[in-house]
Design goal:
Layout lengths: L1 H18 L2 H7 L4 H29 L3 H19 L3 H27 L7 H32 L3 H18 L13 H12 L2 H11 L2 H12 L3 H24 L7 H17 L3 H27 L7 H30 L1 H18 L3 H6 L7
Helix pairs in contact: 1-5, 1-6, 1-7, 3-5, 3-14, 4-5, 4-7, 5-14, 6-7, 6-11, 6-13, 8-14, 9-13, 9-14, 9-15, 10-11, 10-14, 10-15, 11-13, 12-13, 12-15, 14-15
């Protein structure tokens, strides 16, 4: 499990190295916010297309090869971003990055969750909270490195990302590969079990919870950059500091999967303040509260979903969720970019408020909690 955590930490730091400032980076190159939204859509379309094939590779054949391929493809994407040849190359880089993310999104979490001998949704939620805690800590490190590199040479953020991913690749080579227990299972049986999982109400809840952060994810840098570039770094510290405190908040106040709806509604309030406020303190505090609540919400929704998933299809199930999440973002990201550019950042943030409201409404369905007791296995 330590190697799995090390891989997650290094990958998260690598992503943070550029994601701390990438929207500002692209806009300083002269690209519009609408084009940034289009690139995000291309990224998520690629994730959607590649998710299931790589998850099947992980679940049925090789737990190691999927991670190796994904890591290599992401480094190729970062190289294209660094070269910055033309807009078409940037879109291609986003496509490659999406394919690389697809190879590791469900698989890296499955490496950890498969070792937890429990189907209790609250215990699984705690595990996802722990993963989020480590990712946030790594994000702080990578974000600071990224800001420092950006101040010296903006394009160097991509070289920093490559450096972290090279280290992650070294960790992958230390993994002991394993052929999935279900490799001999017929494709028909495998597909039926995986499909049964992702058609559950808890799957829809998790998809919407994941996609709900699309507007603040796209627009927070621009919101903080209104004040100064230094305030963007403050925003990134807030982003990852809130990620660190989210799991602690869950444990301290014993927030359980039954509280999903309340957490979603509180997130709407936080986002409303964040989107409408022009005061630096209000922007910073509301953003902190939003991120902390979102981390908690995703951990709770993940616990509900994975409590009904058998280890032998966990990577596939997780990737199917990521696929569906990506398809939702393919629609929402350009919408957020267009609304934000046309009517302002506050209205763009409002798109996410609607998705959080959908999460709150869906959480009231009895089938959400009932599904947690229905573990899908052979």
């Amino acid at each position: 499990m330590r190697r799995a955590y090390a891989f997650i930490i290094l990958s998260s730091a690598g992503v943070a190295c550029f994601s701390v400032i990438d929207v500002v980076y692209f806009t300083t190159l002269g690209y519009s916010l609408a084009f940034v939204g289009l690139m995000t859509a291309a990224f998520n379309a690629a994730v959607a297309a590649a998710e299931v094939p790589f998850a099947v590779l992980f679940d049925r054949y090789s737990t190691k090869l999927a991670l190796q391929l994904g890591n290599l493809i992401r480094m190729a994407a970062f190289t294209l971003f660094f070269l910055n040849l033309d807009p078409a190359t940037l879109v291609l880089a986003q496509v490659l990055a999406g394919i690389g993310v697809a190879a590791t999104s469900g698989t890296s979490n499955a490496l950890v969750v498969n070792q937890i001998q429990s189907g209790n949704p609250d215990r699984l939620a705690s595990a996802f909270g722990r993963i989020g805690y480590l990712m946030a800590g790594a994000g702080l490190l990578g974000g600071v490195v990224g800001i420092l590199l950006f101040a010296v040479e903006p394009r160097a953020i991509w070289l920093g990302a490559i450096g972290f991913f090279v280290a992650a690749a070294a960790v992958i080579f230390g993994f002991t590969d394993s052929r999935a227990d279900r490799a001999e299972e017929s494709w028909g049986d495998y597909a039926r079990r995986a499909t049964r999982v992702v058609r559950s109400s808890s799957a829809l809840l998790l998809v919407l919870a994941n996609a709900s952060a699309v507007a603040p994810f796209l627009l927070w840098q621009l919101k903080f950059d209104v004040f100064s570039l230094g305030f963007v770094l403050v925003g990134y510290v807030i982003l990852n500091g809130a990620g660190l405190l989210g799991p602690i908040l869950m444990a301290r106040f014993r927030i359980r999967t039954a509280h999903v709806g309340i957490v979603a509604l509180l997130n709407i309030l936080a986002l409303a303040v964040f989107g409408l406020s022009s005061d630096g303190w209000a922007v910073g505090v509301s953003f902190f509260v939003h991120v902390m609540l979102h981390v908690v919400l995703v951990a709770l929704a993940s616990g509900l979903f994975h409590s009904g998933v058998d280890n032998s299809v966990r990577a596939t199930a997780g990737s199917a969720i990521s696929l569906a999440d990506s398809l939702v973002v393919v629609v929402l990201a350009p919408l957020v970019g267009w609304v934000g550019q046309t009517w302002g950042i506050g209205w763009g943030i409002g798109v996410s408020c609607l998705t959080y409201a959908a999460v709150a409404a869906l959480s009231r369905r009895r089938s959400i909690t009932d599904a947690a007791g229905d573990r899908v296995s052979a």
